[in-house]
Structure formats: C-alpha cells, structure tokens
C-alpha cells in the first residue's frame, strides 16, 4: 500500500544521503590534497633549512679562516723579532735598542711614579663614578651601573684599581689552585674580548662573583670589543674583592704587542688621551703578572684550564717555576738570563711552551701528535693522543680551554676530554652563541649555559638577512685581503691564462686564490660572491671591478706600493707604536725608514734593502712635508672602497640601541652534555 507522505519523504532522504556521500568524498579528497600540500611545504622548508645551514657553515668557515689568517701577523712579527735580535750586531744601535725594548718589563720605580693615583687630580668637570675609600661590593655594583650607562672611569680610579690588583697578582703562583671542596662550584668563562654586554649578562644570570660563587676567567678579556677597559676593570675589582674565589688566566691577547692591532691600545688612547702612555705601560705590566693556567680539584675530577692548549713539550713543573713576568710579550723573546743575545736551549724550550699554552688548538683534522699550526702560523695543533698522554701524566680528567670562537659557544674534542668554551656572543659581527661552563663539586660532568646578547633580534629576521648579517664582516675582510694582493693575483692569473682571453678554468682560479692569499677557503662555493663566470670559465679580472684601494691623503701613482703598505699595515702599526714610546702619534721620517727596513730585513733575511724604495715610501707617508709621519692618520684614511655603493640598510633593521645602554638578551639555554 502506498503512503502518500512516505512517497514524498523517501526521495528527499535518498537525495540527502547521496549528497552526504558526495560531501564525504569531497572531504576525503580535500584531506588528501591538504596532506600533499603540507608534505610539499615541509619538504621545501627542509630544503630551505638545509641550504641555509650550508650557507651558514660556509660563512662560518670563512669567519674562522680569516680570523686565523689575521693572527698570522703575530707569527710573522715573532719570527721577525727572533731573526733580528739574533742578528742585532748588524743593525744600527737605535734599532737594536728598539727591538729589545719590546720584550723588557716596565721599570718599577718609573711605573709607580707615573701611575700613582695620589698624584692624579680629578677635574671639577668629571661626572663619572668615583672611588672614595676602600673598594667594596657597592663600588663594584656602582661601576657596573656606570659602565652600563656608557660612563668612562677617571684615570685616577683606573690606576687605583690596577695597582691594588697588581699587588694581589704578584703574590699568586704561576697557576691558580681552585678547590671545589670549599667553593662547591665554579663558573668558567671563555673569551670576552671587550664585550661588556656578555660579561654583564653572565653576572646577571649566574650571580656576581662572591666568596661562595667562584669564577675562572680564561683570558682574552680585551681587544675586538669597544669596552675592553671596562671589562678588565670589572674583573680586576672582582679579584680585589674576592681573591680566593676569582681566578684570572692570561690569554694570547693579554699582550701589549697584540693589543696594538686589535683595539685595546686604541681604546686606551681614545678614553685617556692625557695619560695614555703610563696606562699602556701599567696594563703591559699587569698582563705579565697574570697566572698561566688554573688547576681545578672538583673531587671526582681534576681539571686543567688554560687559554690555548698543550703540546708534547708542555712541562707543568717547568711552567710552575719560571718567572712569568719576563714574558711581557709572547711575540718578542725575553732577554737571556745568561746575558747573551740568544736564548739558551733551555730558555728557548721555555719560551715555546708559553707560546703553546696561549696559542695552540686541537688538530681540526683529527691527526695524531703535534704539528705546526698552519692556520695561525703560531704554536701547534695537538692530537687526541697528545691529550691522552698529558692527562695521564698529570692525573687529570679534562682540559678546558678557550681561544677559538665556536658556533654554539662550546665544543668537545678528543673524545670529550677537551672542552672549548667561548663567551663572546655574536663575535666580530657574527652570529655565534656565547657559553659559560659550570662545574659542581663531585659531579661527573659540567653544565654548559649558552646565551646570545645583541640589539638585533635574529629570530624575527628573514633567513637571508640572518646569513647576510653573519657574512658581511668576513666578506669585507676577505675583499680587503684580495685587494691588497691584487698585483700578485693578476700576475698569477695572467701567467695561467694561456689563451689570453681573460678566462681561467674554475679549479685553476681557486688554486691560485689559495696559493697567493694563503687562506684555505671553499673558493668554489664563494665564487658567486667574488667573480663573474660564463661558459668559457672564470672572468678573473671581474673580481677587482667593484673595489679600489683608496687614500685621499696618499698621492702615489705606484699602486704596488699602496698594496705593500696596506699588506704590512698590522706590522707597521706594531713597530710604529714601539718607536713612538711616548705615544705622541708621530715618528720622524728616519724612524719610519727604520721600520720599513726592519720589515724588509725580516722578509728577506738579509741586510740587502733597496734604499730608493724605502725613500719613496717614506716620502709618500710624510703628508705635510714636515719630517713627521702621522701613521694613525694614514691608517684612518686608508680604505678599501666599494665603487658600487651598497644598498642603504633601514635604520630599524640595524637594531641600534640609541640610548647607548647595554643590549638585551635574546635567549639562553642550559644543557648538560
């Protein structure tokens, strides 16, 4: 029997059911489509991340290699000084005196007379922090707050701090003994390099130094950063307040010859113009009294902490007994105790041990034994077998060292027996993390605290911007190296260009770059940033199209001489500051001629120097024709200029902190490895 109402409802339900099935099908198809789209997005993102990682690794490799190549000047100076001192009988008396002066300790009475804080007047116009009475914890905090505001401490109080710290340092043995059975824990801080923001973050995050909050600062307090004076002053105040729980190790940058080239020397000149010479001498003396390393008794573990590393020559017994203040500079050998011009064999061995302690690195290729450090041209690379033998000989568990910037702020080597810690984040415009090690009594392993401080918020930037920020300082340094070797590069390029069509095979171009610049970089990866290429190969002349060596004050048609001067600028600066003993900023033409002769003598290894060439250089440097050379003016105006102006960076993207206060912390994480 047919029901009229059912006859109407059933078709409608059937229609609805059919529509629902279609909707389910559409839903399934939509889900499949979304899944495929999500998968494609994920794949694209992973590929993008992988490309970004490769870019960062390439930029990081450039940064490391260029950092090391810039330090090769230290090795050249050291080798040159050694040669010259051994051959000082053939040099003029004034030059011989100059060479020996670099390695001599400061004369005690003269130092005390020139830097006695009681004889230094504070001007009525001075509005910075003051030290009235004993140095207390309140003074420490007041100084931190003043330095945060960008204030500069008066030289009277600088001398007061340094003399008190110097008195303590002179009583400390060659190594710090850190006993955690009493202290319970210790924080180990790596290179700070004048980066006040990083030091203040470390204090803020982990607590100020105190009798129950110990710190080891593992060298390289100064250079590179703009607040080296403030960093080292805070460390010295901490030492004065807590000499039994604050420990300072000397680094390779606590060397007045090194600071001439890497910023600390200029910072003193800028902040203390009226008393720069005595302050330089006072810092020079304090550097020589810093302990060489620290020994940490952590209960279950015994740890040695030094700035650089070890070698198969290191003898702790010998290091513990030597007169460390003889080593005013590691670049210039001290005078022999025998009175002779040359060091005895025993003294030579001691000198090289000091170099290894401050300058060595774990072998980057995992090789055994000790070999010449090809990157720095100073000290050695040491292998895992050398580490194992050293630890066994001295009943140690681990080596903690610094000296090398690491992308994460730390790195383990040699099966976890060597730990590198570097505490200057975003070092030299890079994007590395800083790190601090905390070791607690009777713990098997340390805590590692990584952090990053800066004004630019890296996480909010585009991927390309992150890489650009990181690459720029290294790329500029690389172009500087290319342009100062332009003549030598073109000579080799044209020699290899057998077709004379301004083209070279890619591998030939890369080999010449490595050979001439003496830097082992991934040239094939870098070629897009450096040179043009087409189907016939690399257009090698295009590498020099965008940049020129420029100095408006230096009128010289001979570009080869321009390149020579710029190539030697670090060595010239070091020697200039030796001759300019009163730090006036000027030396005579004759003195500058002696400097050029020293460099040529050091390179040639003989006294055969082209006097006409020396005269041409000296004449070109005497800008005002007054018989004086203002070398600092020359350096300030000597630039590698980009002919094509780079795009302007938006002011906001620079991340500048216009108040001048210390930049904020982006992020920190704590791990146990």
Short description:
The chain is α/β, with parallel strands linked by helices and 673 residues long. The chain is 48% helix and 13% strand.
Structure overview:
The chain has 23 helices and 22 strands. The protein is an alpha/beta fold. The protein has three domains: 4-73, no CATH class; 97-451, 4-Layer Sandwich (Purple Acid Phosphatase, chain A, domain 2); 580-643, Recoverin, domain 1 (Orthogonal Bundle). Helix 1 packs parallel to helix 15 (463-484), helix 1 crosses helix 21 (589-604) and helix 5 packs across helix 8. The termini are far apart. The relative contact order is 0.10. Keywords: Calcium, Hydrolase, Manganese, Metal-binding, Repeat. Belongs to the PPP phosphatase family. Its EC number is 3.1.3.16. Pfam families: EF-hand_7, Metallophos, PPP5.
